[in-house]
Specification:
- By secondary structure, the protein is mainly β.
- A 14-stranded mixed sheet has the order 1-2-5-24-29-32-35-38-41-44-47-50-53-52, covered by helices on one side. Strands 3-6-25-30-33-36-39-42-45-48-51-54 form a twelve-stranded parallel sheet.
- α1 runs antiparallel to α2.
- The chain is globular and about 85 Å long.
- It starts with a helix and ends with a strand.
- Keywords: Carbohydrate metabolism, Glycosidase, Hydrolase, Polysaccharide degradation.
Length: 899
């Protein structure tokens, strides 16, 4: 019998047991009792004789989805809801001397409200309250959407009445697979105004429910014809429409102002006080696409909730039958709400073996919207842009500096001590997964899975209290080890896998983080006015460690982040500052770093890591601030195996020493590689699944340019793969006049190397739009949003790119790091690669996402050339390559040292 069948059988048996127990109370005699014991013994894994003989723990509480909340919560008569179990625990804890376990039988517990825990639900000295689930134990905040019918006259479209309690939601799941909220191109041209936009036609005003429509501002580095819509390449704000009247689009407040306005320093024009992104945005704040509109519900896998008619619409994917599918709409915004206080903390509780699923977050759908600054932090409140987190730098500014509003967690703890989260799954969630808020201490997060989460995977502490008034408000001694975080964020793409604020003695170690949209781990984060010559704001952080993690395929959606990203003070000295050690970080997509010490970052040690495959710089020592003696922010970068290749030195406090150029990742030290990521007993987490296998998510940020009879196309890859790796991409160019369509298929491995594809066979003089789909073993994804139209032309040989500048080389015995700045002009077409000629006769072609994205802002390029001989002179020639041809070369010479 399979485990799945066993769990379903046990649940059914538990239900039968409850019914038998009710009957037994009316029927005297040992036979009735024996029947109860026999049924319940099987339900909870024993025999009737074992149950009859074994002394039952009087204090333990038993729960089953088909139990009865009028029952006593014993093994023979379980209660039905976790809330009732909590109430029983409250009665028993004061008399408890040993651990009290709440046994959660397999099955789905549909919560009517969040499970609220406070100090009354805590363990005591020497014992804990353990909430113990198992395979198939699910805490759900969702409601099943049933009784689906095809919509007459709309082929492929189905509808169902919204279930009771579903007034609004931002997510829908079909057999555990997240559906895409209806999205599409904006059908009119928009011109910014002080309160929103003027549209070229009244099309939007004629759509149903205009005030439910949401504009999305995707960002990332601008390249080719891909625009940068957000507040910087690391953000993705979202704002609802407030109202529509003809061609006048009035955006919801305060989202509009908080997303488009910034206060500048009066004596530093163009420098915003919050230091984040450009100072003036209104004239450029055009949305990239529209979401949550019935009129763009046009592809399989998309859905829409008409709140006014209480109707849910869905276009099934291939193979889905809405009549028989499990379709879930999240209703609750929290599943577990731990409400400790400084004087009465929540403590000595363990949550084990529970899947937390189907919770939403509705603030972004309100006039507040989602005015993101970075890492899921947002500007909130009426005129928040004027004051929030700006301290003494602006009249009425609130402190601490750079403290904005943190995204909430669907499982949230405040002032919790001696807590444990182990063997859980945080999946199918609409905010952050787990929030360990202010005052969380001595807490373990171990052996969990975080995936399919709209925003941040996990949040620890915050930046609202850089110097808490009491010990109870400190966040410290939180251990996050051996967790797998992947395929997130799904909705708020500027989110990160692990967000850690102002904390002490925290350890983030032996986790695997892969396929994430932005940074993997974000540390510190606030208090960094260094760009105006001010030191970082003091905070309580010290002795935090990021060690032995395996991080790969990060920054798949946005740019200017890292595998490990840090801002602000991390301690008071290099001894107690942040330590980033023993990590293996590779294959970032967006322009950024493997380890990034950003604004105000001070007292960080980066030691003994393996770092490769990053775009642009592998590691950056951010040194905007210098003290009165001219010293930089102290930073220690030693003993890493990397592609950066910086020479040893001490640049006024930034120490670089004993690092090794890594020309071949397979040659990285075996002990570092073996120790990174999940430890052996936890590697089974990589095989856990929570949904049926599905097609990948659609690629994003498609850009293109035209050449003679062809189009060159780039895009961001599908990092949500649907349980099966992406094998290829299909690129389709369609003539805007409908005359013909041309497609080409690109293997995923080739695209990872080149970051672009070429569609040939196009007609010169004809405009084309381009879309991209991803394919895995299950099938083909939804189409991407289309790139802006391009028109191939035949204008002769054209102009070639200029020469690259700033070419430098730094060599070790068998490898050299080359660095250069892209050419100032690229001729007729953008740079798509570089040709490096080595004096030993080799020619090396350099391609990749950094090649494409570095050009617009002249970001520095680097590459490592291996297979060199010690004590040998080499000359390297570097030439830019475009669709037009290869430009002139720049040369640099270097002699490798002896071994």
């Amino acid at each position: 019998m399979s485990e799945y069948v066993r769990s379903r059988t046990r649940t059914a048996q538990a239900a039968q047991a409850a019914r038998t127990a009710r009957t037994a109370r009316k029927a005297p005699g040992f036979a009735a009792v024996a029947a109860v014991l026999a049924t319940l013994g099987a339900a909870f894994g024993g025999t009737a004789d074992a149950v009859a003989r074994a002394p039952l723990p009087a204090a333990d509480v038993y729960v089953a989805p088909n139990g009865d909340d009028r029952a006593p919560g014993t093994r023979t008569a379980p209660v039905r809801t976790p809330e009732r179990a909590r109430d029983l625990v409250r009665k028993r804890v004061p008399h408890q001397k040993t651990d009290l376990t709440v046994h959660l039988a397999p099955g789905t517990y549909r919560l009517a409200r969040p499970l609220v825990l406070d100090s009354r639900d805590s363990g005591g000295k020497g014992h804990r309250v353990i909430w113990q689930g198992g395979k198939g134990t699910v805490f759900s905040g969702g409601r099943a959407v049933q009784r689906w019918k095809p919509v007459k006259g709309r082929s492929g479209l189905w509808s169902a009445s919204a279930p009771a309690g579903l007034d609004n939601t931002r997510q829908l799941y079909v057999n555990g697979v997240r559906a895409q909220r209806a999205r599409g191109p904006i059908p009119v041209t928009l011109t910014s105004t002080a309160t929103g936009y003027t549209a070229s036609a009244d099309t939007l005003a004629r759509w149903r429910n205009p005030s439910d429509i949401e504009f999305v501002y995707p960002s990332g580095e601008a390249l080719w014809n891909v625009q940068q819509y957000g507040l910087g390449p690391w953000t993705e704000p979202r704002c609802p429409i407030g109202s529509m009247s003809g061609t006048t689009v009035t955006m919801a407040q305060p989202c509009w102002d908080n997303s488009t306005r910034r206060v500048e320093f009066p004596d530093i024009p163009g420098r915003s006080i919050n230091m984040v992104g450009p100072a003036k945005l209104t004239s450029d704040a055009l949305p990239g696409y529209v979401e949550n509109a019935f009129e763009v519900l046009d592809q399989p896998g998309e859905w829409y909730l008409d709140r006014h008619t209480r109707t849910v619409y869905y276009r099934p994917r291939a193979g889905e039958n809405p009549r028989t599918a499990d379709i879930e709409a999240p209703v609750l915004e929290k599943l577990v709400d731990g409400r400790g206080t400084g004087s009465a903390p929540l403590h000595d509780i363990a949550l084990r073996g529970i899947q937390f699923s189907y919770a939403t977050w509705l603030t972004p759908s309100s006039p507040e919207g989602f005015s993101e600054v970075q890492a899921g932090y947002t500007v909130t409140g009426k005129e928040g842009w004027k004051t929030q987190g700006l301290c003494e730098y602006t009249p009425g500014g609130t402190c601490p500096y750079a403290s904005w509003t943190r995204m909430p967690g669907n499982v949230a703890i405040s002032h919790g001590r001696d807590l444990e989260f182990s063997d859980n799954a945080f999946v199918h969630l609409g905010a952050a997964g787990l929030e360990l808020g202010t005052g969380t201490q001595n807490t373990t997060v171990r052996g969990n899975v975080f995936t399919d989460i709209s925003g941040n995977g996990m949040e620890i502490g915050g930046v609202d209290a850089p110097r808490p008034g009491s010990d109870a408000d400190l966040t410290r001694k939180v251990s996050v080890t051996n967790n797998h975080l992947y395929a997130l964020p799904r909705e708020y793409h500027g989110g990160v896998a692990i967000l850690n604020g102002y904390t002490q003695h925290n350890t983030i170690a032996h986790n695997q983080i892969d396929h994430v949209g932005y940074s993997a781990i974000s540390m510190g984060w606030g208090g960094w006015p260094d760009k105006i010559g001010k030191p970082a704001t003091a905070n309580v952080s010290h002795d935090n460690a990021v060690a032995n993690n395996l991080i790969h395929d990060y920054m798949q959606a946005l740019d200017d982040g890292a595998g490990v990203y840090t801002q602000g003070l991390t301690g008071s000295s290099l001894d107690n500052g942040e330590k980033i050690t023993g990590n293996v970080i590779h294959d970032g997509w967006g322009l950024g770093r493997t380890v990034y010490t950003d604004n105000g970052c001070t007292y960080v040690t980066v030691e003994g890591n393996v770092l490769y495959g990053a775009q642009a710089n592998v590691l950056s020592a951010h040194v905007d601030y210098r003290d009165d003696l001219g010293n930089n922010d102290p930073t220690r970068i030693v003993g890493n195996y990397w592609e950066q290749g910086d020479r040893d030195g001490n640049d006024k406090g930034v120490v670089t020493s004993g690092n090794h150029i890594l020309a071949d990742p397979s040659k990285a030290p075996a002990d570092i590689v073996a120790a990174a990521g999940l430890e052996p007993r936890y590697r089974g987490l990589l095989d856990r699944t929570f949904a049926t296998r599905s097609v990948p998510e659609a690629p994003t940020r498609v850009g293109d340019f035209a050449a003679d009879g062809s189009a060159y196309v780039t895009w961001n890859p599908s990092y949500v793969e649907g349980g099966s790796p992406v094998t290829s991409y299909a690129v389709t160019a369609t003539a805007t006049n409908g005359s013909h369509t041309v497609s080409t298929t690109v293997p995923a491995a080739r695209f990872k190397r080149t970051a672009y594809a070429v569609v040939d066979g196009l007609t010169n003089g004809t405009p084309y739009t381009v879309t991209v789909t991803a394919r895995n073993q299950v099938g083909q994804s939804e189409r991407s949003l289309a790139a802006a139209p391009v028109t191939p032309t035949a204008d002769g040989p054209g102009a070639l790119p200029a020469v690259s500048t700033g070419v430098k080389a730094n060599a070790e015995a068998t490898a050299a790091r080359l660095s250069w700045t892209p050419p100032k002009t690229t001729g007729d077409t953008p740079v798509i690669g570089y040709r490096i000629t080595v004096s030993d006769g080799r020619t090396i072609t350099v391609t990749g996402r950094d090649v494409l994205a570095a050009q617009p802002r002249a970001k520095g390029m680097l590459r490592v050339i291996g297979k060199l001989r010690p004590a040998t002179a080499y000359t390297f020639s570097i030439a830019a390559v475009t669709a037009t041809g290869t430009g002139p070369s720049a040369e640099v010479s270097v002699t490798t040292p002896s071994e």
